[in-house]
Amino acid sequence: MQMQFPKDFLWGGATAANQYEGGWDEGGRGPSIDDVFTGGSVNTARRITIPPEADAFYPNHEATDFYHHWKEDIALFAEMGFKVYRMSISWSRIFPNGDDAQPNEEGLAFYDAVFDELAKYGIEPLVTLSHYENPLHLTTEYGGWKNRALIDHFVRYADTVLRRYRGKVRRWLTFNEINMLSVPFGSFIAGGMLPETCTAQDRWDAMHNQLVASARAVRLAHEIDPENQMGCMIAYMCVYPRTCSPEDQLTQLSVDRLHNLLAGDVHVRGAYPSYAERLLAEEGVTLKVSEQDAADLRAGTVDFYTFSYYDSRCVGTAQEGDPSTGNGALGGLRNPYLQATEWGWQIDPKGLRWVLNHLYDRYQIPLMVVENGLGAMDEVAPDGRIHDPYRIDYLRQHIESMREAITDGVDLIGYTPWGCIDLVSASTGEMRKRYGMIYVDKHDDGTGDLSRHRKDSFYWYQKVIATNGSDL
Ligand code: BGP
C-alpha cells in the first residue's frame, strides 16, 4: 500500500531574513543581533563583536540580498511551482530598536510589496515572526530574552504585523527553533544573550519567556482574524540510543524530552509536561511559572506543529572508537549506519519517517516539515551550470520518507526545504555551505555579483511539484 501526497499539499521552500534579506542599514531598519555576528568556518562558532568592527566582514549585512532581488527571486520560486513560501519578517525593520513607540512605515511597506508579489503568483506566505533575530538594542539594553520585558515588546510587534497583514498572511510561526535555547548554542542566536555570561537558568528562563510571548501572540492572532493558523517551530534533533542497554534507552528518553519535546509539548498542550520539573532540576534549572503565565500558555495553543529536520545522532554509552558528531548544537555520537555531510551532519531520511510518526502519535495535529536540506559546497561546472546530484538524492530520499509517513497515517500538510535559494549559514556564517536550488554568486570573502542561477535541483524540484511528488 502506498499513499500519494494529498492534492492540496503545500510544496515550497524556506528562507529567513537574518540570513537572506540583507539591506541591514536601509529603509529605516535598526541593527539586529546578526549584524554583530561575523562568519566562522567549518565547525567553528561565529564571533560576536559589539559594535561591529570596521574591517570585519559581516555575512548577513548584505546576505544574498533579497532586499533588492525580491521580485526576481519570487518569480523564480513561482517558476519552480511553489505553493507556499516560508520567510521571516525582520523585527528590527519594523521596530528598529524593539521598544520604539511607533513602527517604521518603510519596513511595513516593504513586506506589503513582498506579500502582494507572492499573491500575484498564487504563492501563500508562511511567516516566521522571529527567526534567530532580535533588535540589537534588546540585547544591549535589556540583556536579551531572559528579561521578561521582551515579552511585551514582542507581543506589540506581533500585534502590529498581524493587523497590518491581516488577510494577506494566514499562516504564521512564532519563534524559529525555540528549543535551541535548551543548548548553549542558542544563547545568542535564539535568545540574544551573550554566551560568556549566559547560564542554563538564563536559557530556560528565556525559553519560558518566549513560550509565554508565543502563546500571547497566538491568542491575539486568533482574535484579530479567526482564520489565522498559528504554528510552533521546533528543531527536531532526532536521537537514537547508541546500544540496546536499558541505560541508553533512558538516556535517549531524557535527551529527546529535554531538547526536542518539551517546548513543543508546551506549545501544543498549553502547559509544561509532568516530566519537566525533574529533568530541568537535573540541569540545575528551576521552573518559575506564575498563575498568569499558566493562563496565557493555556489560552494560546498552536493550530499546527512545524519542525526542521536535518540529521540524527546517537546518545548513551560510547562504543570503542566511536567519534562524536561534528554538529555542535547537540553533540552526540556517530551512528555507524549513516553517512555524514562535510559538516558532520548525519544523513538519515528514515529518521524523518520516525520523527513524523513520533510527533503525530503524540499530538494528532497537522504537521509540516519547514526546514530540511543538504548543506554542500557547490561548484559552477565548466559548462556554466551547477550540477548537484547529491542534493537531489538527499531531497528525494526525504520526500520518499514523508510519503511513507503519510501512508502510515500522519497528517503532513507541507514541505519547505531550507535555503531554497543560497543564503548565509546560521551556525557558521559561511556562504560556501549552500542549500539552494538557486545558486547565488556570493562568496565568503564578500565577492560575487549576486546573480541568480538555476541548479540541476531547481528543474528536479519543479518536476516533483508539478507531479505532486509522484515523479521523484
Ligand atoms: C536551522 C535554522 C536555519 C538554518 C538551518 C541550517 O537550524 O533554523 O536558520 O540556517 O538550520 O543550518 P546551517 O545554516 O547552520 O547549516
Describe, in short, the structure shown.
The chain has helices at residues 17-20, 59-62, 66-80, 91-94, 105-120, 137-140, 149-164, 186-189, 200-224, 246-269, 276-282, 291-299, 349-363, 389-407, 456-466, and strands spanning 10-14, 37-38, 47-48, 84-88, 124-130, 171-175, 229-235, 238-241, 304-308, 312-315, 367-371, 412-415, 438-440, 452-454. It is α/β, with parallel strands linked by helices.
Description:
GO terms for molecular function: beta-glucosidase activity. This protein is of the alpha/beta class and 472 residues long. The chain contains 15 helices and 14 strands. The protein is globular and about 55 Å long. The protein starts with 9 loop residues before the first strand and ends in a 6-residue tail after the last helix. The mean pLDDT is 95. Bound molecules: 6-O-phosphono-beta-D-galactopyranose (BGP). 6-O-phosphono-beta-D-galactopyranose (BGP) binds at residues 16, 19, 132, 176-177, 235, 308, 371, 375, 418, 425-428, 433.
What is the percent of helical residues? 25-40%
Question: Between the first and last Cα atoms, what is the distance in angstroms?
Answer: 18 Å
Described by the principal axes of the CA atoms, the overall outline is globular
Structural class: alpha/beta
Low-confidence stretches: none
What's the CATH topology label? TIM Barrel
